[in-house]
Write a structure and sequence with these properties.
- By secondary structure, the chain is of the alpha+beta class.
- The protein contains four helices and six strands.
- A six-stranded mixed sheet has the order 2-1-6-5-4-3, sandwiched between helices.
- Strand 5 and strand 6 form a beta hairpin.
- 31% of the residues are buried.
- The N terminus is likely disordered.
């Protein structure tokens, strides 16, 4: 039930975060290309353990709903989040964009991901799931406005 509410709010936010439709709207192909490029940059920055590079992929007012449920707002907080994530031992992130949908001058998409993280028992384990992403084209290019991963529960959490 909460997941459905979250998806409804994401759809509402996606619509509210973009200007009304105009002749400059993006195409499905352009959004898919931008989403794929952001996913590749995300994975490259993750592999390089570059928290600032990851935060720069988000809009200046970007939001991450962390797997723990905490809300991380803005690039400085995102940099801190990823710094802590890497300190915990997280590594090996891979994203595959599954689909995108245009809304005005941006849109939203669904991705699949996997990442290696330490479990509650301290042993590394692979975590996988889905991510809902709201994309926005700003004056300085494409960014992620809102990111919310969905991670199935693990036995060692």
């Amino acid at each position: 039930m909460n997941r459905l509410l979250t998806l409804g709010l994401l759809a509402l936010l996606a619509g509210a975060s973009v200007p009304p439709a105009s002749a400059t709207d993006v195409t499905e192909a352009e959004l898919m290309q931008a989403a794929t490029a952001l996913a590749q940059q995300y994975d490259a920055n993750y592999a390089a353990r570059n928290p600032g590079g990851l935060a720069a992929l988000y809009a200046a007012d970007g939001i991450l709903v962390a797997p723990s449920g905490s809300i991380v707002r803005g690039r400085q907080a995102l940099t801190n989040y990823y710094t802590n994530r890497f300190a915990s031992g997280a590594r090996g992130h891979a994203i595959k964009v599954v689909e995108t949908h245009v809304q005005g001058n941006g849109g939203y998409g669904f991705t699949q991901f996997r990442v290696t993280v330490p479990g509650a028992n301290g042993k590394l384990r692979e975590e996988h799931g889905s991510i809902v992403v709201v994309y926005r084209r700003d004056a300085d290019g494409w960014h992620m406005r809102l990111v919310e991963p969905s991670v199935p529960e693990s036995v060692d959490q």
